[in-house]
Design a protein that fits this description.
single chain; alpha+beta; Triger factor/SurA peptide-binding fold; Chitinase A, domain 3; 4-stranded antiparallel β-sheet; 3-stranded antiparallel β-sheet
């Protein structure tokens, strides 16, 4: 994968989008203010992407809810665009790193460039539209950070109280720390099963490496050399994981879990077969269940409480942004729907 070329291309595209709009807009102006105009085509594109996102999750939106959804999308587009106009050079520079990382990480989720393009099409978006929206979102978040988030202060006493009164949130189940070597029985590029002949060859290679591991060769070096796990370059084959019954989010597949938790410290497993292929596992340690100490949890708690405070402040901030920009909603139906949504939020 030509990662360096992709990053360069993304950086060039991001730089261009800082200075010009990527989408050709048309149709009547629905809202304006502060030098910003939102046209019907922009809202239509946003709704198509929104509906496609729902469909990808097996959900849909009733036609009776379309007007309310469009009103919410219009408000979001408008506020985002207004915040972008308020961005200074520092905001844009702060956003640029996040933009490039997000775009590159998103691209890596697809096996190939064609798969990535197909994914965007399934969401009703072109690559330029996707990139443009990522750019706008990142810049608007940089402005929010400067104007609101960076001014929030979470007292340490509040963090300590949160830790003391939320035992379940900081309960860590028993974890296994292990390294594995994977010999994949699926084509990593397209997910297709290998032929029986190729699987037998993989198994023979795995048995050879297992023999070397049991004779005392450095397991980490063997993992780095032979493992076909795509994450090996970053993790060197090492993972910390829980049993699925204790924490499904941090669990491995059942066959892997059973084998790993059944090993003694520093013991090497037999070949373990899963849907991914043949694994050789070495258990380094079992980490006992515990409550995560406050010192370890402090930054996570601070982030959580800061986000809570930010969520509370943002509606007032957004209202001020729109008021200062003297925003006008020119479409009467959209205006009525937005006013209704505002009343419902105030009622809650």
């Amino acid at each position: 994968m030509k990662t360096k070329k992709i990053l360069v291309a993304v950086a060039v595209l991001v730089s261009a989008l800082f200075t010009r709009a990527a989408d050709l807009t048309f149709g009547p102006v629905l809202a304006k203010g502060g030098g910003v105009e939102i046209r019907r085509s922009e809202l239509d594109d946003a709704f198509i992407a929104y509906r496609a996102n729902l469909a990808a999750r097996g959900q849909n939106i009733a036609e009776t809810r379309r007007e309310a959804a469009e009103a919410q999308l219009l408000d979001r587009i408008l506020v985002t665009r207004l915040l972008v106009t308020q961005a200074n050079a520092t905001d844009k520079e702060n956003a640029k790193t996040n933009i490039i990382k997000f775009l590159d990480d998103t691209r890596k989720m697809a096996a190939t460039e064609d798969d990535f393009a197909r994914h965007l099409r399934s969401l009703g978006m072109t690559r330029a539209q996707f990139t443009n929206r990522v750019v706008e979102q990142a810049i608007s978040e940089a402005v929010i950070n400067r104007e609101v988030k960076d001014k929030l202060v979470v007292p340490e006493a509040d963090m300590q109280k949160f830790w003391e009164t939320n035992d379940v949130a900081f309960k860590q189940p028993e974890l296994a720390r292990a390294t594995h070597i994977l010999f994949a029985t699926k084509d990593l590029a397209n997910g297709q099963e290998l032929s029986t002949e190729d699987k037998l060859k993989k198994k023979a290679r795995a048995e050879g490496v297992l023999d070397r591991a049991r004779k005392g060769e450095d397991f980490g070096m063997l993992a780095t050399t032979f493992s076909e796990d795509p994450a090996t370059k970053e993790t060197k084959g090492e993972y910390k994981f829980a049993r699925a019954k204790d924490d499904p989010r941090r669990a491995m597949v059942p066959e892997f879990e059973k084998a790993a938790f059944g090993l003694a410290t520093n013991q090497v497993s037999d070949l373990v077969t899963t849907d991914y292929g043949y694994h050789i596992i070495k258990l380094h340690e079992l980490i006992p269940a515990r409550k995560v100490p406050f010192a370890e949890a402090k930054e996570r708690i601070k982030d959580f409480l800061t986000q809570q405070a930010l969520d509370k402040e943002l509606p007032k901030f957004f209202a001020k942004v729109k008021k200062d920009a003297r925003v006008e909603i020119l479409d009467e139906k959209m205006k009525a729907a937005m006013e209704k949504a505002e009343q419902e939020r105030a009622g809650n």
